[in-house]
Sequence to fold (422 residues):
Amino acid sequence: MGLTAKRVRDAKPSGKTRIEWDDDVKGLGLRITPGGAKAFVFNYRMDNVSRRMTLGRTSELSLADARSRAMAAKQAVRVGQDPLEMLRIRKSLPTVSEALDRFQSDYMVKRAALGRLSDKTSREYNRQIERNLRPALGRKRVQEVTQKDVERMLAPLAPIIANRVLALASKFFRCCEDWELRPQNSNPARGIEKAVEEPRDRTLSADELGALGRALSELDENEAAILAIRLAALTGLRIGEVRSMRWEDINLQSGQVVLPKTKTGRRVHTLPAAAVNLLADTKQLSAWVIPGRDIDKPLDLRWIRRVFERTCRAAGIEGARLHDLRRTVMTQAASMGVGAHLLRDMLGHKTTAMADRYIRNAGQPLTELRERVGAGMAAILSNGELQTNGGDSQHDISKERRRSVGRTTKSRGAGIPNRSKD
Fold:
């Protein structure tokens, strides 16, 4: 009689270990020890030697799954592969957690030594590894991770975080391929579509900026943090760039600051006169322009954020973040008619993609342009004439078309062949 789910469940121990065999899959059996431990086993012959492998405990493996594993093992034997040797090799492969340790101690350290990985990015990688990759995938063997495993890890995350974790996972599995822990071109993060991120376009109005300035003057807060906020508002620099400024990199006479490490590498930034005057009035208490409690280090970013939040509350400003100061400066520059390439250089970006976004959100000038175009289109719809600036007749499209047709006719009469008759 073959094995059934009821027979597996009701099997009782005896005085010695015994095996009850299955009639449906030859070689599959249920092993029961005197202590009552039950497990599925599979017997096979390799090179005329009888071998036995344990498939799994009955508490962890159903009879159907046991039969499926036994069938897979039988197929391996038919093609000359030893299931026990394959299992040994599989168990010798590293887990994702072990490979992540190598990623942190090898890949990240080497990239940092080459100047290709900033301290901030390194901290972010470590945070994502410990919060997301290791808990979700750590126990799996590197070769066994599938695209569905990665998708399940990303499912509960917010869009921005999910995209960052996806990028890190893709980088990690590319390293695993380089280390020959996975076959080439088997990256399970490849092909997963990124989550849609809602772009943040919050800027501060003139009234909000005025209220922020008054609050910064009136509040009794950390002076270094207040200086950082003012410099960010005046220059449009990222708060991390402001925080990492050193006095030795600033030339007050030329109004320039050298930023050794930015997203696009070393950059020389010209400071506006207001920022130069602010720096000239600042006491140099440390090598850092924005010194922390430990004068050998810059002020912690969390302190600057806290001061900014308290200042916004005092000024009655809601929903603002530190980076919105940079966005406000760039939007103001775009509204002054600054071109995309010049704005790109002001932003410190490699491409004009972000500059184009600021130009599209330029505010009042763009609104005025849309109003003029809309008024002109309304005039065409009403009387067939395009009027701008109070109805200037020089912009009459229909008249211009008639003049163009007349010029074309005269040209043809002067010896230019009529191609339509050829």
Observations:
- The beta strands are 18-21, 28-32, 38-46, 49-57, 250-251, 256-259, 267-270.
- The chain has a mean pLDDT of 81.
- DSSP finds 17 helices and seven strands in the chain.
- The CA atoms of residues 234 and 275 lie 6 Å apart.
